Amino acid sequence: MFLPKYLKEYNNKMKVGWFLHTPFPSSEIHRMLPSRSELLRSVLAADLVGFHTYDYARHFVSACTRILGLEGTPEGVEDQGKLTRVAADRSLDFHALCALYAITDVALVTSLRDGMNLVSYEFVACQASNKGVLILSEKRRGQRVKLEAFLSLLRLS
Q1: Stated pTM of the model
Q2: Rounded-to-integer distance, Cα 55 and Cα 77, Å
Q3: 3-state secondary structure of 106
Q4: What SS3 state is found at 18?
Q5: What tens digit of pLDDT does each residue of 99-156 get?
Q6: pLDDT in tens, 87-97
Q7: How many CB atoms lie within 10 A of CB 63?
Q8: How many CB atoms lie within 10 A of CB 140?
């Protein structure tokens, strides 16, 4: 969760999107974390913060308002004039998601175990002219083999 902050410190002009595919806890649960404020501020360094469902996005905005005292808006969270957009995955239609993947320079997939997550494939398929970088966690070994086969098919077409 600290990655958006580190990326912005490295290059403040960089556009950073951060997506959490797992549930974001309610503010009551998040409040118990020792580094709760630092985690929230680090994620807020991103330009766009995405969550799998509307409820998880709402939990994040609620945590920012209740723990940090920031203003939640329909678009996201505002902190000293800077708006971090907050969205739910389901709010993007297929074409908007493809456009987002197409302009993304780096996709970092850090799943704890292999599953049916197609983000890696979708990202690669949308990289026709951008040539973005896909980084897979060491836990995604099975998907790496499948992804190599997928890449071979893309090269043939």
Answers
A1: 0.74
A2: 15
A3: strand
A4: strand
A5: 888 888 888 877 665 565 678 788 888 887 777 888 877 665 556 666 666 666 666 5
A6: 998 777 889 88
A7: 27
A8: 21
Residue 50: pLDDT band (50, 70, 90) is: very high
Domain boundaries, the chain: 3-91, 94-156
Q: Going by C-beta distance under 8 Å and a sequence separation of 6 or more, which residues neighbour residue 62?
A: 26, 27, 72
**Helix then strand then coil, % of the chain, to nearest 5:** 50, 20, 35
Handedness of CA 26, 27, 30, 32 (dihedral sign): negative
The DSSP string of 114-153 is --S--HHHHHHHT-TTT--EEEE-GGGHHHHHHHHHHHHH
Say if residues 119 and 125 touch (Cβ distance below 8 Å).
no
Using an 8 Å Cβ cutoff, are 113 and 124 in contact?
no
Q: Is residue 47 over pLDDT 70?
A: yes
Q: Cβ of 107: how many Cβ atoms within 10 Å? A: 20
Architecture category of domain 3-91 in CATH: 3-Layer(aba) Sandwich (3.40)
Alpha-carbon distance values, 47 to 56, 112, 142 (Å): 18, 25, 32
